[in-house]
Amino acid sequence: MTTAPEAPGAAATSGVFASLRDQLVGAAEAFTEDRRDLGGILTGLVDDVDRALREPLEVFPVCHHSPASALAMVQRLRAKQPSVIYLELCEDLQPLLIELRNCKLPVALQAFASELDGHPESWAPLSVVAPITAASAEYQAIAYALETPGVELVLVDRSTDHVFQWLPRAPAQPDHDEQDPHDEPAPQDEQGLHGDAVGLEIGDLRPGFAELEEHLLHHGKVRHWSEWWDQYVEQPLVGADYDTYRQVMVLIGSLFRRLRPSGASRHDRDEDRERYMWTRMREHLARTGIDRSRALYVCGAFHAASHVEEFGADAAPTDFTISERTGTKWLYGLIPSSHSAIEAQFGLAPGSVSIAAATWQKAVSKTGAKPYALGGKGARSDRALAEKKLAANPPTPAQTEIALRKAALPKPADKLSGFLSRPPVLDDRDEAELLGWCVDIVRLARRNGYLSSTADAIAIFETSILLAGMRGRARPTPYDFQDAAITCIEKDSVPGRRDVRRLCEILLGGDRIGSVGYYSLPPLARDVYDRLEPLGLNLEARTVQRALLDLAGRPDLVPASRLLWRLRYLLPSDAVRPIMGERRLGEKASIQESWDLAIGKYQRSLIELGYEGVAVEQVLEQRLRQGVRTPEATAATALAAVEDAILYLDSPTFVNELGARAVELLAAERTVDDAPAVLRRIRRLLAHYRATEPELPEWCEQFVVAGYAHYCTLLPTAFVDEQTGVRQVAAMLGFLFSLESLALTLGCDRAQLELAVAQSHPETPAKLALVWAANIQLGTLTPAELRTRCDELLDNPLVLPSFPQYLSGFVQALEPVPNLAPFVVEVLSKAFGLLPDPVLLPWLPSLITTLRDQAGELVPALVREAGRTFPGTLPALDAFVPPWESAPPAPTSRPIASGPVTALLTTHPATTDALAALLGLDPSWPEPDTGAGGGGGGGAASPAVAALLAAHPAPAAALAELLPA
Predict the structure, then answer these.
(1) I need a surface site. Which of 243, 296, 850, 957 has the fewest CB within 10 A?
(2) 187-188-190 Cα angle (round to 5)
(3) pLDDT for 529 beyond 90
(4) Is the alpha carbon torsion for 345, 348, 352, 357 positive or negative?
(5) Burial of 672 (C-beta count, 10 Å sphere; 0-12/13-18/19+)
């Protein structure tokens, strides 16, 4: 903790607070022997208040979402009627304020940037939000300025670009220090309305270090900061006059400023913000020549006690300069907000913003104040006409004099001494309000399944008063009532989906959720609402809307269906959810569809789509193009983008562009990690084009050619690489074998594949099984030889522990060699029958996991083959003999029939012997029959053949000419 430097002009402190200064100095002497530090802090607080009051440009200190600040703002605006309001808010958000007319509060002003220039790329996307609620002083100032002709509203805080300019560049992510999360998180339902945006609020009043906050919470007998602020600041100031409110708020801001820890990271940035705002205000005053007494500066109480040299409209010029903005292109708009979203972003206790809203309504009703509010579209949209009318009837000099007299600040008077020494006054209306709360919470609890009764209402009333007394409060607060209700009603279980804490929040105002009006939406969002209008649904509602589309009976709904599928791709999954109907490659479009639409609930996501383009199709195309151009893009992601473009966009040219990018990515890959996804997607795309197009597009042919050469090149390395899994190698072989015929027709050489397999010498059993399967497909290994190898493995006791790995390889081999399924069933059956239990039982979980996670699409083929192999009834199973165990049929002694075919085969037996060896048969030849019917072997020619050649000599003569003599 450090004592802040003495503010400029502190030596010229007026005598208004002389008595209070003496009291504070005396208190410092009474509490400590060395009064320099404590006395300096206490008298410095008074000096800061005095300095803010003496500033000719009236400083209005506020706290964000504070009912006391909002009520004081209403009273001051009606009394002063300023012609210029300087507001602490990012200056580039000014054009958005007029759009608040069409919104239901709370909403948030947003600045968004996805393409950065001058900021670290790792920070993208950048987003800044400034929430606005009805119970806030800044909204009252905005509404007054926009609804009153002749009033100018000027935003003077740093731009959103400077928010990130002033952040340190060291962290990998922006230091979102505009928010200060301390308390428990808000409910999960709506706290994500602001996303990951940096939150900006006017008047962030909170202790700068944890020790001070812990001290205040402990001695205030409260649980969190929001409750302390409500008890010790909000409630006492709600009924205070303007002078008292102003002095107390500056005092609190000065306290937190002076008790800031040394070396705080935000210190320099806060002072730069103050220099920025005072520089902008002096520029505006010099440019317009407006009388300072007719202006009002609305800022956080923390900044009202500023110590910078630039403080004050008459401050001397300094060397502070405002840097230029970067080249980042910012987009601006309004997004929905909610009480829980504000609480989550700014570290407030759950329900605190709702309690503040209820306090605001109560204060307005009690004081009879008339708050300012923005009218809807058309209510005050003719402001220009009103200003023209004012220009045609300018105020008289007497009216101007009256306005200046109203704008003049009254002579400062010490209101702090009385406020700090006066005990809180109990409001007679609180008891009736508490009784109403107790009755209503019991009624609400019964509706939600609690067995509450009138006795519980009495218990809650008495417990609330008891808790308030134990905590040193003159009257029960909503937090006391909430604790009492939980204690008296909830007991030990929650019968429904809402607990008593949530019911109390609903009773005290609930989580109000805002929405952005149609005319304040970006063009893309308005276009979505227009194109979905034929559905006849209230898309702005936050409830789920069911849309039933009969596309056969109402062809006019087909464009809406296409838009819904595109929104399904772009928005969160719950925003647009299909109940009936699907869209896949190779399948016809559904004739009927059913959708659950929650576009109103996810309005923020729809609005942020508008920052990326003016139409949904444009945004979808941009996202697909960006996805395949990122450094992390792979051939699999590019093929997925091709599928999405075919399904959701009617642009063959764009599909060809993505396909060409897929070819580039495949050729540049040095790993085969995505080989399964590549194989699955290219098969699906080829099947789609073969079914719908007369010929394959050029990029598909190039992809097959590039993939054939690419995987042939990487195959030997992948077999021996320990980092490459069996699934990936099987997918490579699947690509090469399943697309081999197409690749050969496009000019590929099969010898390249044969060489790649011949050069593959894996050491692991699973990959060795894959090599054997590849040799079976290529014809370099016969099924009989493979069966012999497997039998030898089962007969070798040293190999039995690793035999399950061979089986895993054979299962994966069904991808490239599907006709190996009978052999895989045979090997699995032999393994289950011959492997000992110590080997078999530990392997079963691994087999099940492999089949489920890596070979799920291969299981149906195994099941079908097993169904053909094994009997389907129990009686037949008892007598079943596996085909691989049955004895081969004994050769018959029947002689071979004589004839020309027999003579040809016996004369040239090499072809028949090769075929028999390939089929695993014994190529033995019985003795030929030399009986009647013609000779065999080298006997005389058949008479029938001789007659045929005599009748048709031309073929024989032609053959004789071709053969050498």
Answers:
(1) 957
(2) 85
(3) yes
(4) negative
(5) buried
106 preceded by a cis bond (ω within 30 of 0): yes
Q: State both tokens at 591.
A: 């004739």
- Please say whether the beta carbons of 136 and 345 come within 8 A: no
DSSP 531: H
Hey, is 130 helix, strand or coil?
strand
CB 90 within 8 A of CB 108: no
Question: In the block, which residue shows the tokens 């389907």?
Answer: 872
Question: pTM for the full model?
Answer: 0.71
Q: Output the six-digit token pair for 128.
A: 């800044």
Measured CA to CA, the distance from residue 641 to residue 626 in angstroms comes to: 10
Q: Residue 203, Cα to own-chain centre: how many angstroms?
A: 30
pLDDT tens for each residue of 252-309: 888 878 777 655 566 667 888 889 999 999 999 999 988 888 999 999 888 888 888 8
E-assigned strand segments in 77-225:
84-90, 107-113, 126-132, 152-157, 198-199
Instruction: Tell me which residue of 286, 325, 287 sits closest to 91, measured CA to CA.
Output: 325
| 516: its two tokens | 């952005």
Phi, psi of 346 (to 5 degrees): -105, 15
576-580 β-sheet, strand order: 545-550, 592-597, 576-580
pLDDT digits (tens, 9 = 90+) for 818-850: 888 888 888 888 888 877 888 888 878 877 776
Q: Identify whether the C-beta of residue 917 lies closer than 8 Å to the C-beta of residue 781.
A: no
- Per-residue confidence (pLDDT) for residue 174, from 0 to 100: 45
Mean pLDDT in the chain?
81
Taking residues 764-784, report their average pLDDT. 90
The pLDDT of residue 16 is above 60: yes
CA distance 135 to 64: 9
Q: CA quadruple 705, 710, 712, 713: dihedral positive or negative?
A: positive
Cα 129 to chain centroid distance, Å, stands at 17
Contacts of 206 (CB under 8 A, 6+ apart): 180, 182, 213, 225, 256, 347
Q: C-alpha 717: how far from its chain's center? A: 39
Higher pLDDT, 318 or 6: 318
Integer Cα distance of 470 and 478 in angstroms: 15
Report the sign of the C-alpha dihedral through residues 928, 931, 932, 936, in that order: positive
Neighbouring residues of 51: CB distance < 8 A, sequence distance ≥ 6: 7, 9, 10, 13, 311
pLDDT of residue 311: 87
